[in-house]
């Protein structure tokens, strides 16, 4: 039914558990897995006239975020490989993670977006916003939302 599934992660324990569930789902479908980590865009310091010496250059920042993304997506890649699935990973940069997820799903020809929900409701959801809700409202692709009943480790 699905040939290519986009699995998102932000490196949190919740998203790692979601990613494992996503790989299991992909295995049932015998679908290819594309893991995605969206890092914030590089921000130039605007509060001073001279860049502080400890402030990372844009190249250093991008390299560090790519390393972090590879670390976050490593468990997804290992699980997909163990399951015998085709797999790849990608680190993207954007200050609007939801829109970037939708764009990547379109550009990469994904049939399904598999992502987690922290399960916030009421004021927490309203005040904090939700990448998952924004993805749902900006894509015409199917989105499978994996919701944990309780936090990992509890």
What does this structure look like?
The chain is of the alpha/beta class. It is 44% helix and 21% strand. The protein contains 5 helices and 5 strands; from the N terminus they run βαβαβαβααβ. Strands 3-2-1-4-5 form a 5-stranded parallel β-sheet, with helices on both faces. Helix 1 links the parallel strand 1 and strand 2. Helix 1 crosses helix 2 and helix 3 crosses helix 5. It is globular, with a radius of gyration of 17 Å. The chain starts with a strand and ends in a 7-residue tail after the last strand. It comes from Massilia terrae.
Q: How many helix segments?
A: 5
Order of helices and strands: EHEHEHEHHE
Shape, principal axes of CA atoms: globular
Portion in helices: 40-55%
What class, by secondary structure content?
alpha/beta
Rg result = 17 Å
Low-pLDDT runs of 5+ residues are 123-129
Question: pLDDT average, as an integer?
Answer: 88
| Extended strand count | 5
Strand portion: 15-25%
Strand order, biggest sheet? 3-2-1-4-5
For the sheet with most strands, the description reads: 5 strands, parallel
- Give the termini distance in whole angstroms: 34 Å
Family: Belongs to the universal stress protein A family.
Domain UspA: 1-145
InterPro entries: Rossmann-like_a/b/a_fold, Universal_stress_UspA, UspA
Organism: Massilia terrae
